[in-house]
Design brief:
This protein is mainly α. The protein has 2 domains: 101 residues, Rna Polymerase Sigma Factor, Chain: A; 63 residues, Arc Repressor Mutant, subunit A (Orthogonal Bundle). Helix content is 74%, strand content 0%. It is globular and about 55 Å long. The N terminus is likely disordered.
Amino acid sequence: MRGVTGTAGCGHGRGEGAEVLLVRVAGGDHQAFEELYGLISGPVFGLVRRVVRDPAQSEEVVQEVLLELWRSAARFDPARGSALSWILTLAHRRAVDRVRSARAAGEREQREALRAGEPAFDHVTEEVEAGLEREWVRRCLRRLTDLQRQSVTLAYYDGYTYREVAERLSLPLGTVKTRMRDGLNRLRGCLGGAA
């Protein structure tokens, strides 16, 4: 059934739905891609939206991720982690690239405006707002437990999969997933107060 999240709606065994679909996608199976899309589109959009923030830009990044997924599904290595972790890592990297690209474009525009003698956007205001946002994120991260903070930092700032985080911290994968979920929920609540 289309639009159902989780593995229940895709007709595959529990826990291996995304992996099986990804193998089929690597073979050019359009139906498998549609099923995989239904399974992952929500988590991918949520992750990209948190990083990019702008809804229209987020939708563009998700489309780029899906296109990359179609083209590079054969690169998935189940020995390195789950399919969902691999896909979310692709999404996170693409979202970070978009943010960096937008920042670089803004800096180029500012340099061009300075060369042309035109007043640029209020650089001081932008810097202050960015600094306040960074400080708010730091403050919220400090409210997490050490394990939650380490897990979130490794996954979302350093780009590790859950499995790689578990290996780096010498912890069971289930423990890392639980700490990540709890940490992200606490962060979401804390950062919600910044809006």
